[in-house]
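Researcher: We are triaging several targets before committing to wet-lab work. For this one, the compound of interest is fe (ii) ion. I'm pasting the protein sequence and the ligand SMILES. What I need is the predicted three-dimensional arrangement of the protein with the ligand bound, expressed as structure tokens, so it can go straight into our comparison scripts without reformatting.
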Amino acid sequence: MIKKVHIEDLQPGMEIVKLSSEIWEHLPFLYTEPGIIKSKNQISSIRENGYLHAFIKLDNSSSESDEKRLDRLISQREHTPPQKIRTPFSQEIEVAQKTYKKAMVQAKRIVNDAKLGRKVDYEATIDTVGSIVDSAVRNPDTLLCLSKLSSYDAYTYAHSINVAAISVVFGEYLGLARHELIHLGAAGMMHDLGKTAIPARIISKRGRLTENEFDEVRRHPQHGCDILKRHGKIPEEVLAAVQGHHEKYNGSGYPRKLSKKDIPGFARILCLADVYDALTSDRSYKEAILPNKALAIMYGMRDQDFDTQEVQLFIKCLGIFPSGSLVKLNTGFYGLVYESNPTLPLMPKIKIILDEDLRPIPAKLVDLAAEQAVGKDNLEILECADPSAYKINLRPYLTRKG
Ligand SMILES: [Fe+2]
């Protein structure tokens, strides 16, 4: 298992997990050099260099994989949502793609309006979010797939849509009403609007920020809230979610250092979606982390950044193999997860698309749980695979039928 620890708690012999990404906004001053900590001197030097946290591997002797352990943990949760009748993936994916495109236009518009000091068109945003909510209710996996496969060149806009979509999918899983999902999605679309008030050289800086620069960044949730207040008609819970999306469970977040249940509920949902999307997104300067690894990392942030129960539910909602993941099967073939299975997280529905040599094959839809139910349980997922390592663009496979 992976756990986030404070540098003061590091000990010689602990193994630092490889985490090449620098999602500085969420994990500032994170030490990421992988390997075993050799001495107290090494820890002193890490501390002197200003690092505050690291992710370590726990229980190296255990043969249980992160997937299996997470599966076991979330299966112990009592919350099992009622089975809902969903529109088939193949039917919804084209509608979801149009919704995503329309949302992209609106995301660019609100950022431009904010940059130019114009009023943000909240009504148009609500209209866009309404389509996202409808799509998420019909089939949440389509939006999760699209958010996983968005391209990095439009990251700023795609990220706001992804946070909205992932938050809405999780909110729907938790049983929120439609009007609540609309407010949650609107907050997701606009959560980082306050960054338009921060110098671009800081926002686009690669690598670690100075303390002064990070102070500037810490102001963006309040800036966002102030920009939206100028509109005059934004619901209070949307403002509170935007303002609170970087607060942390243990009170170490910003801007108000709120903790535990004092953090507004929608802000806690945005925070989970925000970190998950940041970890799993490709940027020009960093590679995406695989979804299952990202969820393991987030589980390692429990009781610090997130409430344990809430992060467990988030993992349960997305599944051990979230929609949009590429997985390697025990046959050597590769499949794209297109529908997670909340009851049996290790057995999602997959589309087998590549042979063992990564050559495209006619797509074959397989429901791993249904196969097992009829006694054909020889097919199983071995691990998540990294599409970027093989230079595979998965997006065309979402709609490809054969
Ligand atoms: Fe933010």
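Researcher: Any quick observations?
Model: The two ends are 38 Å apart (CA to CA).
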